Amino acid sequence: MDKEIIIKELKFKAVRSSGAGGQNVNKVSSKVILSFDLLNSKGFSEEEMSLLSSKLATKINLEGILQISCEEDRSQLKNKATAIEKLFELLEKSLAKPKQRKATKTPKSAVEKRLKEKKSNSEVKNSRKKLDF
Prior knowledge:
alpha+beta
């Protein structure tokens, strides 16, 4: 993943934000929508591209564009920086390979404890029964 190439490929759009801010909300376009053409990006290898397209399939639209919006701050510049951070966090999380699980056996002590509990439970229930003479 080449961050410099990816940053050059980003497209930003400023939109009026919703929520708190009073009259400022009606005047200033502080919400930022970041668009990134994931399928046509040159910042990834083929292996990374296939991994990203499978993991981010629900977040990519039909044209292969990943959109991230940010309206956390009243400043457009801060929202732009936050949107870029969110994008790179999402990409890094998607590219991370999970650890392989090591198969382990149930400890002998746990098996013995379970069987002992079952036996004592059985004895308690048997003691509740009426004796048949």
